[in-house]
Amino acid sequence: xxxxxxxxxxxxxxxxxxxxxxxxxxxxxxxxxxxxxxxxxxxxxxxxxxxxxxxxxxxxxxxxxxxxxxxxxxxxxxxxxxxxxxxxxxxxxxxxxxxxxxxxxxxxxxxxxxxxxxxxxxxxxxxxxxxxxxxxxxxxxxxxxxxxxxxxxxxxxxxxxxxxxxxxxxxxxxxxxxxxxxxxxxxxxxxxxxxxxxxxxxxxxxxxxxxxxxxxxxxxxxxxxxxxxxxxxxxxxxxxxxxxxxxxxxxxxxxxxxxxxxxxxxxxxxxxxxxxxxxxxxxxxxxxxxxxxxxxxxxxxxxxxxxxxxxxxxxxxxxxxxxxxxxxxxxxxxxxxxxxxxxxxxxxxxxxxxxxxxxxxxxxxxxxxxxxxxxxxxxxxxxxxxxxxxxxxxxxxxxxxxxxxxxxxxxxxxxxxxxxxxxxxxxxxxxxxx
Length: 434
Fold this sequence. Notes:
Layout (H helix, E strand, L loop, with lengths): L1 H17 L2 E4 L5 E5 L14 E3 L2 H19 L8 E7 L9 E7 L2 E9 L1 E3 H18 L11 H12 L13 H6 L11 H15 L4 H5 L8 H20 L3 H11 L6 H8 L7 H17 L8 H12 L1 E5 L8 E5 L1 H7 L2 H17 L6 H22 L4 H25 L18
C-alpha cells in the first residue's frame, strides 16, 4: 500500500513538473516560469502570505512597474529582461534570490523565489530589480549598488499608496461575491499615511541618515527591521516631496554606474538641494523634528507663514553701535551677510537658511511657496558661483547679482504682504559676524 501511495506521489510530482507554465508579461520584460497555483493552499483574505501563480505574477510585475513609473516619471522603455522562476517552498521563510548576468550588451536579472512569499517581500524584490534595471542601462562593467534605504522606502511608500489594494492572488468571481473580505481594499489615503508615520515617529523616533546608510541589525530582529522600514519610508517620502524629488531620484540612479559608491551619485542627483552629506543629515534631522511636532498635512496660516519666513530670512545678531557700550539685538538681512561678511563666514549661515526653507516647503500657503523656493534657489546659486570664483572680481560680481535678486524678492514679498514699503535689506548698518 505504501509503495502504491509513493508511486502516486511520484507520478503527481512528475506530472506537475511537466505542467510548469512559462508566461511572458504584456511588455515582454518579465518572463515567469512555475507551476499553477495550488487552490488548496489559497491564502485567507487577511493573510500577508502570497501563494504565487505564474500568470498572476506576470500581471503583478507589470502592476508594480506601472506604479513605480508613475511615482518616478519613467517612460515605457526598458533594456534588461527579468526572468523569474517559482519553485515549491523548501523551508519556512525561504529568501528570494536575485542574480544578474550580462549578454549581448544587455543585463539580465534572474529571480529565484518560493511559491509562498510575504507580500511585502515580493513587492520589495520587484522594486529592487526594476530600480537596478533602470540604473544599469548605462553601465557595462557590473550591476550597480543601490542605496539600502531606497528599495525599502519605495516599497513601503507604494504599498501604502497605489499598491495598497492590489490583488496578488487569483480569486473567482463567486469567491469575491460570497466573501466581501476578499474584495480589494481601496488605496490608503495619504492623509492617513501621514498620520500613521507621524505617530510612529513620535512614539519610536527615526533613524539618523548615517544609520539608514548602514544596516547593522540582525535580519531576524523583527522590531529592528520594522523600525528600519519605517524610517526608510519616511526618508524616501520626504525626498519625493522636495521640488523635483522624483527627477532627483532618477538622476541618482542614472549616475550610479559612473561612481564607485552610491553616496557620490546621490549628491549629484540631488545637487539642487544638497552639496554635502552633512547637508542631508541636517535636513533630515529638521524634517524628523517637524514631523514629530507638527501636522504636515496642514499649511501655516498667513500670519504664521509670514512670521516663519521672517525668522528664516533675518538673523538676530548682537551689535554694539559706536558710542554705546550695551549691544543691541538687530535683525540682519541676507544681503548684509553677503555684502559685508567674509565668504567663509557666510557659508554655514546660508546653508542653514537653505535647509530651513527646504524643510518648511510643504507648509507654506500657496502664495508664499514659490517665493520661498526662489529665495532658496538664489542662495544656492550664489554659493555655487562664489565657490567656483577664482578671482575677486568674479566673486564680487556673484555677490552683486545675489544681492540684486534678493532685493527683488524682498520687494515681491512686501507687495504680497500688502505693505508696499521699501525692503528692510538696506536698513541696518553693515555688521560683522560675532
